Amino acid sequence: MGGQNEPLMRDLYPDKIFYKIKILYIEDTKDDQIILKHLLEKKSKINFELVIVSDGFDGLRRVNEEYFDLIILDYKLPGMSGLEFLEKLKKLDVKTPVIFITGKGDERVAVEAMKRGAKDYIVKDETDFDRLIKAIEETALEISLPKNISVEVALNIANLFSMHEALSAEEIEYLFEQNHRLQLEEILSALDELVRVGFAERKPLHSAIACPYCGSLKPNLLLQCPHCGSGNLLKGEAIEHMNCGGVDLKFNFNKDEETLVCPKCGKKVRQLGVDYRKVGTLFKCSNGHLFSLPVFNFKCLSCEKNFEINEATLKTIFQYRLTRKGYNNLLLAFRADGSNIINFRDGSWEHS
Ligand SMILES: [Zn+2]
Ligand SMILES: [Zn+2]
Ligand SMILES: [Zn+2]
């Protein structure tokens, strides 16, 4: 990915929708040169510029002259081996990622290459370039992402947006219930980073209660008795037996369909307005307390802690959607995940 201070093309040309990954391919076998170029063109959605040189000397010259995103390096090269090339690269302090290619049976060399700073290695198989294409795609995806966003997070975000055009933070949390490998916070902060670089846009939807302990957006409303804190409540029409002052929910008076009996004094209650009256809707707790309004608290479904409304965190819930630029930059993630379900064309989504 280049040295720390090396400008990336996406920073130099932030509006450029398609980023071209610049690849240096150091390979002396003509057939391999042709095959890789052909496969990248045909099998991959990578927008690339491929510079091919036949030995390490030419390779070093090119690296000195221009910036590359990725180097693909064959082990067996005339004059200077791939391992020697890696050594020279290190001395030049070039930090471009290198995918190292060895032949079958050269696994020891591969280990040595990794020690000398290669990012990945591929054991060359005459007929199968798939692994190499995949490694190149992964690097291309990594390059097209903002710093601090991992390929794994990008794949997850691409996966979310392959099925949903726009998603709120709450919906994302809901969708993530099945997938606990990543934290919601990680996805949301990655999305905010995508907004910052223009890959996504967001708009505020509403405010929501969040758990002050874990940040979850799924606290459950907890209704409690104001006298004893019991959360086991009943709600209903209440009546008062005027003779004794006994108040209770109406169904507690119902001896049968027609007969009302006061649960306090045990006497029959006969006529509305004469010996009993309606007192409106009341709550009753499991300990027998009657009250008109329960206390509202919250129970977090993630960390299971209880908290009160004044302890709660209030969060602005945003709805996110990928911009055209973001979609194009994450295109490889959509592909890598095997879900080419939706295509983004001219600002609108099409199912294919
Ligand atoms: Zn109570
Ligand atoms: Zn009574
Ligand atoms: Zn919590």
Fold blueprint:
Layout: H1 9-12, E1 21-26, H2 30-43, E2 48-53, H3 56-65, E3 70-74, H4 82-91, E4 98-102, H5 107-115, E5 120-123, H6 130-144, H7 151-163, E6 166-168, H8 169-175, H9 184-196, E7 200-210, E8 219-224, E9 233-241, E10 246-249, E11 260-261, E12 268-269, E13 276-285, E14 290-291, E15 295-300, E16 306-308, E17 313-322, H10 324-336, E18 342-345, E19 348-351
Parallel strand pairs: 1-2, 1-3, 3-4, 4-5
Antiparallel strand pairs: 6-17, 7-17, 8-15, 9-10, 9-13, 11-12, 13-14, 15-16, 18-19
Helix pairs in contact: 3-4, 6-10, 7-9, 7-10
Bound molecules: zinc ion (3 copies).
One zinc ion (ZN) is lined by residues 241, 243-244, 246, 262, 264-265, 267.
- The CATH topology name of the largest domain reads Rossmann fold
Alpha-carbon distance between the two ends: 34 Å
Largest sheet composition: 5 strands, parallel
Secondary-structure element sequence?
HEHEHEHEHEHHEHHEEEEEEEEEEEHEE
Q: What would you give as the CATH superfamily of the largest domain? A: Response regulator
Q: Give the rounded overall mean pLDDT.
A: 84
Adjacency order of strands in the biggest sheet = 2-1-3-4-5
**Which ligands does the model contain, each kind named once?**
zinc ion
Helix percentage range? 25-40%
Low-pLDDT stretches: 1-17, 337-352
Q: What's the number of extended β-strand segments?
A: 19
Measured on Cα atoms, how large is the radius of gyration?
Answer: 33 Å
User: What is the number of independent domains?
Assistant: 3
Coarse structural class: alpha+beta
